[in-house]
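Appendix B, example 12.
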Amino acid sequence: MRQRIYPDTSVIGGVYDPEFADWSKRLIQEFKEGHKIAVISDLTLKEIEDSPEDVRPLVKEIPNKNKELVVLNDNAKSLAMKYISEGAVTEKYLVDAQHIAIATIYRVDVLVSWNFKH
């Protein structure tokens, strides 16, 4: 069974970041080749819309059979707020809490992020 991996926006945009480019490119290539399944949320897609132009097509390059689209539903919103109320993530990082909650609700195997601020 292929691993289901939730890459947050930092990983997708990381293709153009010298510090993370090798790792991001390798992971996206594994998605394209079907070695892993990219679990992409509506939240990630929304963030990508606001990204530089060269980042926007990267998710579209992953074949549909190798990606799973998921949504920030009420359960994920509630769980994100629980993460905040319990102090796991501060309110300042609500969107990051939502990414984590989405990955949890949809039971992905791995959440990947290059965001190490918290």
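The chain has a mean pLDDT of 95. The beta strands are 3-7, 36-41, 67-70, 110-112.
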